[in-house]
Amino acid sequence: MGTFFARHYDALMGWLEKRGFTRIRANLLREASGTVLEIGSGTGLNFPLYHGCDKVVALEPSEVMRRTSMKRALIAPVPVEPVGGDAQNLPFADASFDTVVGTLVLCTIPDPLRALREIRRVCKPGGTVLFFEHVRLEHAALGRLQDWLTPAWKRLCDGCCLNRSTLDTLQQAGLEIKRTERYYGDIFVTVVARNPEAGSGDASASRTGAFES
Ligand SMILES: C[S@@+](CC[C@H](N)C(=O)[O-])C[C@H]1O[C@@H](n2cnc3c(N)ncnc32)[C@H](O)[C@@H]1O
């Protein structure tokens, strides 16, 4: 991963955060409780917004972003522990977390389905899974425009794909989607989902920790 995007992420996001992203994040994170895992926590933009939970483990592979996030962790309203790692191969035991959070991250993880299977493994059965993501539009022409823009966008923004059908991937992983809300002409979506009991949904999600790559 290059460091330009990581070093300038907060500046690049500033306008969007002020125009509504921070409010969307805050509304979603009200659903977080207990011990929380945040995947791809970046520079820690969510850290000030956690209130009703015991602790947040914040997993972020970019050292540059993680270092920035540590400053936010120190002043967060709840204890936040930034750790390195890859969401596709989570370094946690089965059923360790009450809530798993991801914001603007399934667009970038190389294999989002694999990461979701890992999330199901480390989240307790019946636990909560929260996402804020941008998705491929159903409008045919706009969806094709996203497809066309993605290769260049991906290079500019450290692997971010504009055209992922993330709601389909969440369902493929076997998560039970309880509620979605769309924003900005349907391009952004928040998802409140439940991790069903082991054995339901995606056949390949097991609680043994053994996953296909
Ligand atoms: C667009 S940034 C979003 C950062 C943060 N979640 C936010 O809402 O501001 C995408 C994030 O995904 C992270 N990421 C990329 N690949 C990942 C992986 N395999 N596992 C976990 N995080 C990953 C990046 O390092 C980056 O922090």
UniProtKB/TrEMBL annotation:
GO function term, MF aspect, one: S-adenosylmethionine-dependent methyltransferase activity
Methyltransferase type domain location: 37-131
CDD domains assigned: AdoMet_MTases
UniProt-listed Pfam families: Methyltransf_11
UniProt superkingdom: Bacteria
Record keywords, A-Z: Methyltransferase, Transferase
GO biological process per UniProt: methylation
SUPFAM superfamilies: S-adenosyl-L-methionine-dependent methyltransferases (SSF53335)
Full protein name: Type 11 methyltransferase
Organism this protein belongs to: Paenibacillus mucilaginosus 3016
